[in-house]
UniProtKB/TrEMBL annotation:
Protein name: ABC transporter substrate-binding protein
Key word Repeat present: no
InterPro entries: ABC_Gly_betaine_transp_sub-bd
Lineage, highest ranks first: Bacteria, Pseudomonadati, Pseudomonadota, Gammaproteobacteria, Pseudomonadales
GO cellular component: ATP-binding cassette (ABC) transporter complex
Length: 335
C-alpha cells in the first residue's frame, strides 16, 4: 500500500511538472527594438504582461526585417512598436495571415527628411546666418550640396540615413535615387539609432548644417527647432518602388502615412486573446511619452526603469487599457 501511494504521488508530481508549470514558464518573446520609443514601449508592455497576466517575458535582438521574419514564424511573439505596412516582409506575412498589427499606439507619429531651422532662417542670437534660405523641399537639395558637405567626399553633400537593417534605410536609399540626389549626396549610415542621434546632436550644438532622416515620437524632435523638407504627395505605386531595395528605377513620393501598432504573431493572438484585447486598447499620449523619452535619453536611464516610472506617474493612461483585476495586479506590483 505504501508503495502504491508513493507511486501515485510520484505520478501526480510528474503530471503537475510536465503540463501546467512547463506551459506557464514558456516566456513571451518580445522584439528587442534598438530605438528609444520602441524600447520604452516594449518595456511598458512587458511589465504589464508579466505582472498583470503572470507570464514571463524576454527579448530577442535583430534588425527590423529579421524581427518581422521571426514574428511571421512565431519565433518571437510581439513587436512593441511596429510601423505596420511599411516593409515587404510585413505586408507578405500579414496577407498570409501570419501576423497582425493591433491598436494605434501613438497618434501623430511622422517621419521624413529634416534640417535645423537655423540652416534656413539663421539664428542671430548665435551669430548664425542662413546658409540655405530658399531650401523648402527635397527638390532644392541638389543646389545645396556644398552646404551639407561630406568631410570625406569633397564635392558631395552628406545625408544621414537610418542604420542598416531598418526598413527606413532602404526607403531613404531609394529616395536618394528617386530625387536624383544619389550622385550629389553620400548615403551615410550610422551604426545604431544612438549613433544617429549623437551625430545630429553634435552638429546642432556646434551650429553646423546637417541633413538627416528622422521620425517621431522621439526626444530629439522636441529638443531642437527643425524644419521638415517637403516631398511629393504620397503615391502607393511609387511607395512600392521605395520599399524594394532591388528596384532599379524608384519613383518619388513621401512615405506612407505612419500608423504605429503592436505587431503580434497569429498563434500568440489565438492563444492569448485577453492580451490581444489589451494590446488593441494601447495608446500613448504623445506629450508624456516624449517627456519620458527625453528623461531616458538625457539621463541614460535604462528603459525598464523609465517604463516603471511612466506607469507610476500615468495610471490614468494604462488603466484604460486593462480590466480592473489586471490593473489592480499591475498597480500592486508598482508599490
Amino acid at each position: 500500500m505504501k508503495g502504491l501511494k508513493s507511486l501515485l504521488a510520484a505520478g501526480l508530481t510528474t503530471l503537475t511538472l510536465s503540463l501546467p508549470v512547463s506551459a506557464a514558464q514558456a516566456p513571451v518573446h518580445f522584439a528587442d527594438l534598438n530605438w528609444e520609443s520602441g524600447s520604452l514601449i516594449t518595456e511598458v508592455l512587458r511589465f504589464i504582461v508579466e505582472k498583470g497576466y503572470d507570464l514571463p517575458t524576454d527579448t530577442l535582438p535583430g534588425t527590423t526585417i529579421t524581427l518581422e521574419t521571426a514574428l511571421a514564424k512565431n519565433d518571437i511573439q510581439v513587436i512593441g512598436e511596429e510601423w505596420a505596412g511599411r516593409s515587404p516582409v510585413w505586408v507578405k506575412a500579414q496577407a498570409e495571415g501570419k501576423v497582425t498589427g493591433l491598436g494605434d499606439i501613438v497618434k501623430g507619429a511622422t517621419e521624413g527628411w529634416w534640417v535645423p531651422e537655423y540652416v534656413v532662417k539663421g539664428d542671430p542670437a548665435k551669430g548664425l546666418k542662413p546658409l540655405a534660405p530658399d531650401l523648402k523641399s527635397v527638390q532644392d537639395l541638389a543646389r545645396y550640396k556644398d552646404v551639407f558637405k561630406d568631410p570625406e567626399s569633397p564635392g558631395k553633400g552628406r545625408f544621414l540615413n537610418s542604420p542598416i537593417g531598418w526598413t527606413s534605410e532602404v526607403v531613404n536609399k531609394q529616395k536618394l535615387k528617386a530625387y536624383g540626389l544619389d550622385d550629389s549626396y553620400v548615403n551615410f549610415r550610422s551604426g545604431s539609432g544612438a549613433a544617429l542621434d549623437a551625430e545630429i546632436a553634435s552638429s546642432i550644438r556646434r551650429g553646423k548644417p546637417v541633413l538627416f532622416y528622422y521620425w517621431s515620437p522621439t526626444p530629439l524632435m522636441g529638443r531642437y527647432k527643425l524644419i521638415q523638407l517637403e516631398e511629393p504627395p504620397f503615391d502607393a505605386d511609387a511607395w512600392k518602388t521605395l520599399t524594394d531595395a532591388d528596384n532599379p528605377n524608384p519613383k518619388p513620393t513621401r512615405s506612407l502615412a505612419s500608423k504605429l501598432s503592436i505587431g503580434v504573431s497569429t498563434p500568440f493572438q489565438q492563444e492569448h486573446p485577453h492580451i490581444a484585447e489589451f494590446f488593441e486598447k494601447v495608446e500613448f499620449p504623445i506629450e508624456p511619452l516624449n517627456k519620458a523619452l527625453a528623461t531616458m535619453s538625457e539621463r541614460h536611464t535604462p528603459p525598464r526603469e523609465v517604463a516603471q516610472a511612466f506607469l507610476k506617474e500615468h495610471p490614468q493612461v494604462w488603466k484604460a487599457w486593462l480590466t480592473d483585476d489586471v490593473a489592480q495586479k499591475v498597480e500592486a506590483s508598482l508599490k
